[in-house]
Specification:
Elements lengths: L8 H13 L4 E5 L15 E5 L3 H13 L21 E7 L8 H11 E12 L7 H16 L9 H6 L4 E12 L2 E11 L3
The structure holds S-adenosylmethionine (SAM).
């Protein structure tokens, strides 16, 4: 039995989008996919995208140009970010820490490329509690989502991984989102590289 307050997806999406709108400066977006966040970024943002999937990166490059972002997206995984230390003001990841091969390594890289005091914003679906129907379904779905959904592992405790990293967590909003009879936990994590 899954208990607790449920939040409709539309509300979660609105709060996530509002957080993305507050990013400023040179922003590195990890696993930027098809550029779903372009419409949300403040016009002053100097966007740097990272996307390892060649086909998605090509579409992303086109969309980036149409949104006035001049830099072509970078090729590579977030486990080895091709940028120098302290070179960005903020890092953005939406539904990407579920997909990377090594989240701990990615967070090391995020802390490296952020300037001291720089901000990391992650919006992620995370593991459901053990013993819940959703937890069981996500565990069973994992082998399939790993193969067919951009490497997605729906059983990760991403908040714990961020808290264990060199980043300082400034705020976490936790949600339980009803989806097709399941209750998917989702987090919005606002963190900083210590100044
Ligand atoms: C579920 S999609 C999310 C895309 C986009 N962030 C969004 O919110 O629409 C996950 C993305 O992460 C990318 N990805 C997978 N492994 C990655 C890695 N190791 N480093 C960076 N991005 C990765 C995938 O290619 C895909 O574009």
């Amino acid at each position: 039995m899954e208990t607790g307050t449920r939040t409709p997806w539309a509300t979660v999406e609105a709060e996530r989008d509002a957080a993305v709108r507050t990013l400023r400066g040179r922003v590195l977006e990890l696993g930027a996919g098809d550029g779903a966040n372009f419409g949300l970024l403040h016009p002053s943002v100097d966007w740097v995208g990272l996307e390892p999937d060649r086909r998605r990166r090509a579409r992303l490059a086109e969309k980036a140009r149409s949104h006035g972002h001049r830099a072509a997206p970078l090729d590579g995984g977030a486990e080895d970010i091709p940028l120098p230390e302290a070179s960005v003001d903020a890092v953005l990841g939406t539904t990407v820490l579920c997909s990377v091969a090594d989240p701990e390594r990615v967070l090391e890289e995020v802390a490296r490329v952020l300037r001291p005091g720089g901000r990391a914003l992650f919006a992620e679906h995370v593991a459901a509690p053990a013993g819940t129907a959703t937890g069981t379904v996500l565990r069973l779905a994992r082998p399939f989502t790993r193969v067919f959904d951009h490497g997605c592992d729906p059983t990760r405790d991403t908040e714990a991984t961020v808290r264990a990293s060199a980043l300082e967590v400034a705020g976490v909003a936790r949600y339980a989102v009803p989806v097709l009879g399941l209750v998917i936990p989702y987090v919005l994590i606002d963190a900083r590289r210590p100044a």
